[in-house]
Amino acid sequence: MKFKSFIGWLVGLFCLIQIEVAAEDLIRENIPKNEVEKRFVHEVYPLLKSKCFVCHGSNPDDIRGDLDLTNRQSMIDRQILTPSQAENSRLYQAVTWQDKSLQMPPKENDRLTPNQIELVRQWIDSGAPWPNADRWRTIANSEWSTDETGVLVKTSGGLTEEWTNRYYQPEDLWAFQPIRRPALPSNDLHPIDAFIQQKLVQSGVPPASKADKLTLIRRATFDLIGLPPTPEAVAAFLADESSDAFEKVVDRLLADPGYGEKLGQQWLDIVRYADTSGFSNDFERPNAWRYRDYVIRSFNQDKPYDQFVREQLAGDEIDPTNPEMLIATGFLRMGPWEQTGMTIAVETRQFYLDDVTNAVGETFLSIPLRCARCHDHKFDPIPTKDYYRLQSIFAPLQFAERDVDY
User: Which of 13, 108, 255, 264 would give a disulfide with 296, using CB separation of 3.0 to 4.6 Å?
Assistant: First the structure.
């Protein structure tokens, strides 16, 4: 009995030591347990799933090497994982490729990046926590949050849980963050110039010297109307010694009809403007120029951007009696289109809706949405569900010839 008591005491002491070691490792890593669990759910587990499970767990009838990596205890039993000791864990040794006889994943193209290897090391050294189902669900269903490891994004619902809740690095998600006013660099420059100069200094690049007047007027004229300045305009600017000489040049160029043409050209490139309908027949669109001229007029009239957007998306509903509003919706008809006796009408219709949906994303959101047509977006937090929700807005659209007064 005394021997059994001694053994029990020894086992208890051993367990206590293990717990203390794990706690010390957590302190050493300075990562709270709940943060380690969150990293595992959103980063480590998806990494294992994408890199390892195809051979070691996804198919229970075909587990390579009889090594199942889909649960923690299995890895411990097979002596692949030693919690709190990454250097002694064969899992960590395999992903580092330090041992030529143990390199996983085996293909060079699938090899883990240094950041991913460090993620695995931190998880193991922090005790390799593997939350139970309830805890997993709590972590997975948490709202958007930001910590030192990145941004957790909760979408409206992906095809799998991993896609519903995804982890991003802040620099990969800057466009989805709330707008914040940064502190201005301490210099007397215009804020834009101040930030540029600050970055140049940080990069060790000397700033360019100040442009002379001839260079200034050439740059401004090419930028705003797409043409070189006339000799008369150059001479007048060089002779003008007033403090607002350059402002007067810019005001003159903004009032030039060529300004709307120059800016309109860039806009029309974005919205896939064409005078023909594309595909094999490439039929002419005799009235497409009306939308082109609407865009040019809008820029020359300095139309507010929000009004410009609304008119193109829903002008016919805003004011169906106003020809300008009807023409504005030409944006919705700028994509390629072809319906012949050899094409199926519902497919042609779907191609059109896909084109409009993606065009709205690229034009007004600066995000191509086409990826989300068949699966959750690979890079941005846009599930397929949201793609078709957006597309449903345009589902009632029907083509029609509308008469206008000009």
Answer: 264
